[in-house]
Amino acid sequence: MLITDPASPDFNSYASVRDARDFATTRGYSLPDDDSECETLLMQAMDYLAGQSWRGSRSSPDQALPWPRSGVIVDGVPLASDKIPRQLIQAQCRLAVEAQETDLTPSFAGGGEVVAESVSGAVAVQYAEGSSGNAPYFSWLAGLLNGLLGEGGGINFDVMRG
After folding, report:
1. Distance CA 102, CA 95 (A)
2. What are the distances in angstroms from CA 14 to CA 59, 71, 88?
3. Res 123: pLDDT
4. Does 6 sit behind a cis peptide bond, omega within 30 degrees of 0 on the bond before it?
5. Residue by residue, what is the 3-state secondary structure of 86-102?
6. pLDDT per residue over 25-48, tens digit each?
């Protein structure tokens, strides 16, 4: 069961099934009719988001999830340290849609499955599609989470000339 109240000690999801369904409907995506299947997809999305590097710091050292956070300023506006940003809820919903087709947190299998090798002047190796074990990259995610991702988030950095 998803608990979306940040004040609850059992808080485990930024988005509810209703959030996910509304997001999917307004954008032309589909989700399973079964709420428990949607909850599973949302939890997979949470696992992916938990691996991101965020700006600011946790609002409470005892909180279960990385958000809410304090000290985060987006476009010159400080975010409330007791709220979950709307774009974070949307990112979880979009990742839940993606989780239907993509393993968001694949296990490391030591590299891709080799399906062909040949040596004729140069070595050629072909790997089975989807067998690398690397976490997927979503180009849209950095844009959606602009201002929320911290060091290593790959979207914001300062350039200075000396």
Report:
1. 9
2. 15, 19, 7
3. 65
4. no
5. HHHHHHHHHHHHHCCCC
6. 999 999 999 999 999 999 999 999
**How many Å apart are CA 149 and CA 141, to the nearest integer?**
10
Count of C-beta atoms within a 10 Å radius of residue 141? 21
- Residue 41: name the closest of 84, 88, 102, 85 by CA: 102
Label the pairing between strands 57-58 and 69-70: antiparallel
The H or E element containing residue 69 is strand 69-70
Please choose, from the candidates 23, 29, 4, the residue with its C-alpha nearest in 3D space to the C-alpha of residue 90.
23
Residue 160 has phi, psi (to 5 degrees) of -130, 140
CA separation for the pair 19, 57 (Å, rounded): 25
Say whether 35 sits in a helix, a strand or coil.
Answer: helix
Q: How far apart are CA 158 and CA 91, in angstroms?
A: 25
Q: Please indicate, yes or no, whether the overall pTM of this predicted structure exceeds 0.70.
A: yes
